[in-house]
Amino acid sequence: MRLSRYFLPVLKETPSEAQIVSHRLMLRAGMIKQASAGIYSWLPLGYRVLRRIEQIVHEEQQRAGHIPLLMPTLQSAELWQESGRYDAYGPEMLRIRDRHDRDMLYGPTNEEMITDIFRSNVSSYKNLPLTLYHIQWKFRDEVRPRFGVMRGREFLMKDGYNFDLDYENAMIAYDRHMVSYLRTYERMGLKAIPMRADSGPIGGDDTHEFLVLADTGESEVFYDSAITDLRLGDRLVNYDDPAELRAICEEWTTPYARTDETHDETLYGEIPEDRRQTSRGIEVGQIFYFGTKYSEAMGAMVTTPDGARVPVHMGSHGIGVSRLLGAIIEASHDDRGIIWPEGVTPFHAGIVNLKQGDSATDAVCTELYAGLAAAGLSPLYDDREERAGAKFATMDLIGLPWRITAGPRGVAQGKVELTSRRTGESEEMSPAAAIAKVV
Ligand code: ATP
Ligand code: MG
Ligand code: MG
Ligand code: MG
């Protein structure tokens, strides 16, 4: 992409309405524009990151054997009346009436709808296990939408639902989700810690929230610092091996890690003192086993191998796709702007031309662009007639991992400058070497 032809409305001023750094940087970098309270337009740069995050979520879900589908945003109230949640959900649910006076709602989540899809089509244990998921916009009329996309009213969520014959199998699905979530966040350059959470009014037994440590997080968290050293790395996970999944989950759930809702002072006190940590955290996902709550209420039954009919065991599992942009920026920025982890960056490298119109420099920039594109990467070429300082400030603000700078002096010696956004270190080298290093 050439910046002169792109739409990147960066702001020079720091927007006064934004209270936290990720919100400020997303506005300044021209990633989002508020449409109304808690509802945002995704401008091109923000949209690119959103799509990359979505793509990682899809890949990791499908790697775990989960099947994508797409349910609508608008739902009929009837299903929610069946489950009993139409009245219970309260004012967070946006209720709508259509021209025929039918009660509708903008879905805050999809347990009812997926249970309806399941019961209409599946009736035997032979079709289990089954996990279906989608990535779709949700609406929750939050009392206080704030912090930009972190607590929006309209937000993008991945929500997945497992259907299993019994508790044991549902626990395998639970473990599969935990492992797939660990992989997902790690690919985004995030450390998201699974913490035992409170099942709240929905009831049920097993639930973990995934929290990214950040001062601006809305949850208070307590943990054993040993958990922050854990990494999946390039371990190959066999999702068909329940014992392997269990072992990984045990590794991640043995060190103490809880939110304030489930915090236990006695257990916390048993951690060696130098490893006791308390901090703030951003909830970027949650996994939840709730058993037969919806299947009983809505009659989602399956026959067992012995011919009995039993309600199917379920769980639901969410990832805050749009919230993740804010969480990643909270975890990765400096005073000049965003520092995108490679996994989610909107462009892989920025090319800065220090003398637009100088034919030798222009030629080198074009060569860099073509080389990066040929390697399958997306470069952003700043070909505007701007001062070097302004170009550098824009690149720093939008946080691409690499900047390649070309100017007449270096070009005369066959050199460009490669700069790492994260370390700030620069090195001179040939254009081919710079391309090789970025790839
Ligand atoms: P919170 O405690 O922050 O209100 P939640 O527990 O109500 O979130 P879940 O029902 O667990 O949310 O939804 C799954 C994920 O969706 C959450 O872990 C979070 O990352 C994301 N999410 C929830 N509410 C919002 C929101 N208002 N804006 C953006 N993302 C959200
Ligand atoms: Mg909530
Ligand atoms: Mg929560
Ligand atoms: Mg939650």
TrEMBL record:
GO biological process, one term: prolyl-tRNA aminoacylation
Keyword Nucleotide-binding: yes
Xref: CDD domains: ProRS_anticodon_short, ProRS_core_prok
Catalytic activity, reaction form: tRNA(Pro) + L-proline + ATP = L-prolyl-tRNA(Pro) + AMP + diphosphate
Enzyme nomenclature, EC number: 6.1.1.15
Coiled coil: none
Any one Gene Ontology molecular-function term assigned to this protein's record: proline-tRNA ligase activity
Domain Aminoacyl-transfer RNA synthetases class-II family profile: 33-341
Task of the protein: Catalyzes the attachment of proline to tRNA(Pro) in a two-step reaction: proline is first activated by ATP to form Pro-AMP and then transferred to the acceptor end of tRNA(Pro).
PANTHER family with a match to the protein in the record: MITOCHONDRIAL RIBOSOME PROTEIN L39/PROLYL-TRNA LIGASE FAMILY MEMBER, PROLINE--TRNA LIGASE
Binding partners and assembly: Homodimer.
Protein name per Swiss-Prot or TrEMBL: Proline--tRNA ligase
